[in-house]
Amino acid sequence: MYRFIPAALFVIGFTCLAPGFAAAAPDPAEKAKMDSDVDGALSNLYTSVPGSQDITARAAGILVFPRVGKTSFLVGAEHGDGALRIGGNDVDYYKIGGLSFGIQIGGERRSMVMAFMTKDALQRFQASSGWDVGADATVAVVKTGASGKVEASQLDKPVQIFIYGEKGLMASVALGGTKITKTSG
């Protein structure tokens, strides 16, 4: 049984990393589909997380990953495609990927929206050649308070991240090892 573990680790790692190696620019049909998926993800966020639309409306730009898949068996791998929206228009397209290690089995699908609250934070992100989300101290994962609304007191970081599924925000999420790479403009 133990002889299959290295093979399983290789398959999971390759599944996650292969999309990052092949970060080809999406064609026009893929861009149109992504733009539609971004609209749907934002609509879902606004209906499931009260107060989220106010935050994204104040942002200099928002990076939306409509579907981030995570699978794990000892090694976890996540991946997804998204778009950077500025002034209501999708201007660039990105991939997200990451690996995690530890005792873990299973899979999940979620959506992720990153609101760049300042022009400086947005410009630093756009100038990066690959952004490590978990290593950036200017990032905060948004949580809801007892009222079910986003708490204004936690909105002190230049980048606010909403991670949510069908039932609203996800409470415990680790972003270490998560990297975002631009695929096209």
Can you tag this structure with a few keywords?
41% strand, seven-stranded mixed beta sheet, 7 strands, disordered N terminus, 185 residues
| Morphology | globular
Stretches where pLDDT falls below 50 for ≥5 residues? 1-22, 168-172
Number of helices: 4
Give a count of the beta strands, DSSP E runs of length 2 or more. 7
What would you call the structural class? alpha+beta
Provide an overview of this structure.
This protein is an alpha+beta fold. The chain has one domain. It contains four helices and seven strands; from the N terminus they run αααββαβββββ. The protein is globular and about 35 Å long. The termini are far apart.
Structure summarized in a few sentences:
The protein is of the alpha+beta class and 185 residues long. 29% of the residues lie in helices and 41% in strands. The chain is built from 4 helices and 7 strands, in the order αααββαβββββ.
List the SSEs and their pairings:
Layout: H1 5-21, H2 28-48, H3 52-58, E1 61-86, E2 89-116, H4 119-127, E3 131-132, E4 139-141, E5 159-165, E6 168-169, E7 178-184
